[in-house]
Amino acid sequence: MVLVGVLALQGDFLEHLEILRELGVETKIVKKPEDLSTVNALIIPGGESTTIGSLLAIKGLGEHLAKHIENGLPVMGTCAGAILLARKVVDRVVGETNQYTLRVMNVGIVRNIFGRQRNSFITNVEVENVGVVRAAFIRAPGIVEAWAPARITGYVEHPAVGRVGAVAEQNNMLALTFHPEITGDKKIYQYFVSKIKR
Ligand code: GLN
User: Ligand 1: distance of its center to the CA of 96 in Å?
Assistant: First the structure.
């Protein structure tokens, strides 16, 4: 049986815990470095990446977590969670934010690429190896570049912004710019869990 941790510093962690439990997966709330020692995988939820990042830094959890991920801990970052995995982050309006991120995944991300809260939307995203996923984009970022071994594996078509990366994978890392826990589409969780067992 795998034990999947959910980072619970800020954001949508309860919804992820609920979906994992519905899938019959054992879960653990992760708040401190010690909590990471027993988990087989981790979800980093959406929320506010600057807040989650500051808390990761203050608690000394970020450095620890980055090492675990570099050593192969399977991780799925959703929305703010994807931002926290990225090596390069800029904001669409303010540019360089110099915020704390784990800098483990070879992707470049633009925060708030579709605009403000009122520009949030729900749409379908075709994801390689997963299928069509119902996805909620809430002040979502966009994956604008990925370099090996990372690859963009799903795109969103936006009427104003165009085609933007929405899903990327790099070995044990999976980044989604949307919230699967809001639409409750479980396919991406099943895929993530299947990767852990592999
Ligand atoms: N815009 C948020 C950020 O930059 C992410 C939004 C979200 O996670 N829904 O952190």
Answer: 15
Please name each of the domains of the chain with its CATH number. Answer: 3-194 (3.40.50.880)
What pLDDT, in 10s, does the model give residues 99-144?
Answer: 999 999 999 999 999 999 999 999 999 999 999 999 999 999 999 9
Ligand 1 pocket residues where CB is under 6 Å: 46-49, 79-80, 83, 111-112, 138-139
Instruction: Check 15, 79, 158, 169 and give the catalytic one.
Output: 79
CA of 111 to the centre of ligand 1 (A): 7
Q: Among this protein's residues, is 181 annotated catalytic?
A: yes
Beta strands 151-158 and 173-176, pairing class: unpaired
User: Is the pTM here over 0.90, yes or no?
Assistant: yes
